[in-house]
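Cross-posting from the chemistry board since nobody answered there.

I work mostly on the small-molecule side, so proteins are not my area. We synthesized zinc ion and want a rough idea of how it might sit in this target. Sequence and SMILES are below. Is it possible to get a predicted 3D structure of the two together?
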Amino acid sequence: MKPDEYLNEDGIVYCKNCGTPRQLRISIFDREQLVPISCRCQLDRINEQRRKEKKRDFRQRVLALRKSGLSDERFPNTPLKTTKAITRKWKRQKLTLTAGRK
Ligand SMILES: [Zn+2]
């Protein structure tokens, strides 16, 4: 048992922080078994981590898009919306060159 856990009267391990069980009692073939589960604060931490990862992924994607938008080589791969916004700033001559490239 971890230092932040305690064994409750019902024989199940609980979390000291949030007071929710870290074990689940299930019966398999008439035999009771305790399986480990995540308590509330562990779930919160996991969710928070996922949220941060999502945020980071999004930021990286935006950065990558910006990079590709500014880079001449990757210009045709840029999504239409971004392309439109950028093309307005571009000179006509440069645009023709980009359009002709495969
Ligand atoms: Zn907890």
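Reply from a structural biologist on the board:
Welcome over. Reading the output above for you: The chain has a mean pLDDT of 83. Strands lie at 5-7, 13-15, 23-28, 31-36. Happy to explain the token format if needed.
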